[in-house]
Amino acid sequence: MTTKQIRSKYDPDTVLKDISITYEKNIEKLRSCISHKDSPVHNYNTVQQLSFLESNKNNHYHNHLINELLSTLKDSVYFMGRSKKDRLNITQKMRAFYSELLGNYLERINMIIQDPELLAPKQFNDPIPKHKGISFIFDILTVIKKDLEAEYKYRKNMPRAGHLTGLQIAMGKFFTSLKIIGFAQKDQITIVQNLFNTFNVDWKERGRDNIKISLQNPALEYHSKTNKDIKNISNYYFPKSLGDNLISSMIEQAIIFKKRIRRF
Q: Do 141 and 192 meet the contact criterion of CB atoms below 8 Å apart?
């Protein structure tokens, strides 16, 4: 199948568009919740803690700290407004789309690099010079194949999707940001409780302990694993023939690809 056919089969664009629309529609509701006068966020609104964010401590509503946190909740607010069933179905659909896309990429690359006579067909007793252009392409595809195979292995070992999986993955950066800023554990849980109450999240068991065990811990684990794998991309073997500029571009594209394919 072509990428276009796979996209038509799963229609991921509808979900991606809905995520953007939902975020824009609810950004002020998010801001109001996080910046509420009783929110723990104000406990960290000091010059020392916000200087690295270049924030104005006297402007709680528009300070950089709150904007930074809001920017990490784009996917989260979409899932917060969905039922358990919808969250599960969306996660399963998007994972299936990216998994099939990944398998399709690997199949195509293998088909090309496993053909040593590509554009250089042999003839009996008539050797042909090695096609330098194709050799160069093979070097590129071999590196890409290694990254795709690593991603394929990662996806095979992923935990089975549940109704919280979308939120777990979506909130990884949010929890990481809270941790970096220095939020106490109890305040992190309080902020999430406030968000879930504000958006009436379909999860009755959203007590403090459950938020930590079933949401925060998996979220941080997903986020940490992805960041680790992204950093590891630069450790791949890149043939010198590719040149520094092309290698840099390939690493950049691999990072973009990994972030997108692990979004759900």
A: no
The C-alpha angle with vertex 52 and arms to 49 and 56, in degrees rounded to 5, equals 70
9-18, 19-28, 40-49, 118-127: the lowest-pLDDT one? 40-49
Q: What is the pTM of this model?
A: 0.85
Residue 162 CA neighbour count, 13 Å, CB half: 7
Q: What is the DSSP string of 223-242?
A: HHHHHHHHHHGGGS---GGG
Measure the CA–CA gap between 79 and 88, rounded to whole angstroms.
10
CA 156, 161, 164, 170 dihedral sign is positive
Q: Which distant-in-sequence residues (6+ apart) come within 8 Å of 17 by Cβ?
A: none
pLDDT in tens, 41-86: 888 854 444 444 444 444 543 478 889 999 999 999 999 999 999 9
Q: Which backbone phi and psi does 126 adopt, to 5 degrees?
A: -135, 80
- Backbone φ and ψ of 167, nearest 5°: -70, -40
Structure tokens at 116: 């040593």
- The H-assigned helical ranges of the chain are 3-10, 12-34, 47-50, 64-71, 74-80, 84-113, 132-156, 165-170, 172-181, 185-198, 208-210, 217-232, 244-261
With a CB cutoff of 8 Å and minimum separation 6, the contacts of 20 are 74
Rounded CA-CA distance 176/107 in Å is 36
Residues 78, 23 contacting (CB under 8 angstroms):
yes
When mean pLDDT is compared across 40-49, 113-122, 177-186, 245-254, the lowest value belongs to: 40-49
Q: Please state, in angstroms and rounded to a whole number, the distance separating the CA atoms of residues 62 and 69.
A: 12
Spell out the domain ranges in the chain: 3-261
User: Both tokens of residue 58?
Assistant: 């006297």
β-sheet bridge partners, residue 123: 126
